[in-house]
Amino acid sequence: MSAVSAASVADATHGRARRAAPDYQKAWFSAPAVVLIAAVFVIPLVIVALQSLYREGFTIAGYEQILGSTLFWRILRTTLEITLEASLLSLLLGYPLAYYIAQLDRTPRAIAMILVLLPFWTSILVKSFAFIVILGEQGIIKTMLRQFLSLELGTSLVFNRIGVMVGMVHFLIPFCVFPILNNLLAQPPELRRAALIMGASRRQVFFRVTFLLSLPAIVASAIMTVVLSIGVFVTPALLGGRRDMMVANLIDYYTREALDWTMAAALAVMLLLISGALIWVLSRVDSIDRH
């Protein structure tokens, strides 16, 4: 019996070791991704952080100059305004579109998803130049309004905040549609049917079931749009005016024109910290909603 027991214990130990082996091996599969992230993200980030503290020796003069600059605080306010406005508009336009696509049959839904993906097929630089042509004084929109409605817009649609919003929302909408669409398609239809059977109206079903269940996807979309829009550079540079300058444009100025790499690096670090703070706030909102 002792020999049999010893053999059983050995087999059980060997079985546990074999079951544990795949978990250990999975860590090796993630090694290339870890190396890639370190090479293209962590190491350059450390270099930028060190550069922000170096100007003929160790110094924090760059940060002091930024925090004491009225220009920086004005541009930071503009950056946050554009970021929040573009994210909110993208969500307001993206959610109804995702909800509509979720109601379609399989084939029309696939076609609609391809149409939503179309903005990804064109460079943001090319799209910005295209919007200059479309929204300009002699562009398609104003020309059609003059010819068919005899309406003359007194407000310019480009080289101001309107042009920036149009370009950024066009770029951000797919990042809102697909997370929300995935959430809507994953929701059990039995919940909505049960609510209807219990006497709820379609409006109540939407707000009390569908919308509440989609809140995590809304927060995820908000995080992505905020991260993408806070560091945008091309759209405000081409479609915006002088009052629509963002922090990324200020970094470009110090990099290419002023040639002050310390200031540019300090601004980049501060922009990263601000992005992280916004992500943390949105993540906290998501955690509160889940509880």
List the topology elements.
Layout: H1 2-29, H2 31-51, H3 61-67, H4 70-103, H5 106-117, H6 124-135, H7 140-149, H8 161-186, H9 189-197, H10 202-213, H11 215-230, H12 234-239, H13 247-257, H14 261-290
SS elements, strand count: 0
Order of helices and strands: HHHHHHHHHHHHHH
Q: Which runs of at least 5 residues are low in confidence (pLDDT < 50)? A: 1-18
Q: What would you call the shape?
A: globular
Quick recap of the structure?
The chain is mainly α. Helix content is 80%, strand content 0%. The chain is built from 14 helices and no strands.
Verbal overview:
It is a single chain. By secondary structure, the protein is mostly helical. The protein has 14 helices and no strands.
List keywords for this structure.
291 residues; mainly alpha; MetI-like fold; 2 domains; disordered N terminus
